[in-house]
Structures are given as C-alpha cells and as structure tokens.
Design brief:
α2 packs antiparallel against α4 and α5 packs antiparallel against α6. By secondary structure, the chain is mainly alpha-helical. The two termini are 12 Å apart. The radius of gyration is 17 Å and the shape is elongated.
C-alpha cells in the first residue's frame, strides 16, 4: 500500500466526515471573503494602498486568487495540502500587515489583536489540514483511488 492509500485508509469514516466538515468551515471563511474583494475591488485596493502595500490592485488580485482559488480547492479537496499551505501563508502575512495591533492603542488595538490571533489560529488549522490531508470524501482521494487501479 503506497503512502497516499495508507493515508486514505487512516482517513475513512468518521475521520473523513470531520475533515470534510473542517474543509467546509474553512471554505465558508475564505471563499465569500474573496468574492467580497471582487465586489468591492476599488475599496479593497484603496485599503491595501493605505497599508503601504506596493501595487495594490495586483495585491488584491493575488488575495482573490488565494481566497477563492485555494478556498474552493479546500472545499472540494483538490490539491488540499498545497491549498492549505497557500492559505496558511496568506493568513499569516495578512495578520502582520492588516492586523498590526502593536501599532495601535485602546479598543482599536484590542480588536486588531483578536483578528491577528484568529489569523494565526486559522493558519494553524490549515497546517494541520495539510498534514492530515483532505480525507476520503475529496477529489484528492478520488484521484488517488483512480491512479491505483
């Protein structure tokens, strides 16, 4: 049994159902955020520019690709490990750029610290998903089963 198939065997039944639920919940966060950036592109680009980021329009396009592209990949379990790594990196970078609570005071700092910590927690969950894989209820598993016939 190859590594992929042994991983699939470990991730069957209840484990795979929980991995599917986890993937759904992660997609619930990222995909609508990406579509929101599409709908409010100009405002998002202005916000990115206000944070001193170069080429704000390009940065927003990259954020949309990360959130929608990787979010949908995680949702359906396609190249899940790569998508999880991508979104984990995105979440950590976004935390440091957009939730720099240490530069603020009072209620603003407290609110941004919560967002910063959530981003880091989400990145941790994504890294765990990258280790566990998508589970049996995923395109990754279907492709692995098809390649082992």
């Amino acid at each position: 049994m190859n590594t992929t198939m042994s991983s699939l065997a470990r991730n069957s039944g209840a484990d795979s159902a929980l991995l599917l639920l986890g993937r759904l919940l992660l997609a619930w966060l990222f995909v609508p955020a990406g579509f929101g950036k599409i709908a409010g592109f100009a405002g998002t680009a202005a916000y990115v520019a206000s944070k001193g980021m170069p080429m704000p329009n390009v940065m927003v396009v990259l954020a949309i690709l990360a959130e929608v592209g990787c979010g949908l990949a995680i949702l359906v379990g396609f190249r899940t490990r790569w998508a999880a790594w991508g979104l984990a990196l995105f979440s950590v970078v976004a935390a440091f750029i957009f939730h720099a609570y240490w530069t603020m005071q009072g209620a603003d700092a407290a609110g941004q610290q919560i967002h910063f910590n959530k981003n880091l927690g989400i990145a941790g969950g994504l890294l765990a998903l990258s280790v566990a894989g998508a589970g049996a209820f995923s395109l990754d598993a279907a492709m692995a089963r098809g390649s082992n016939r």
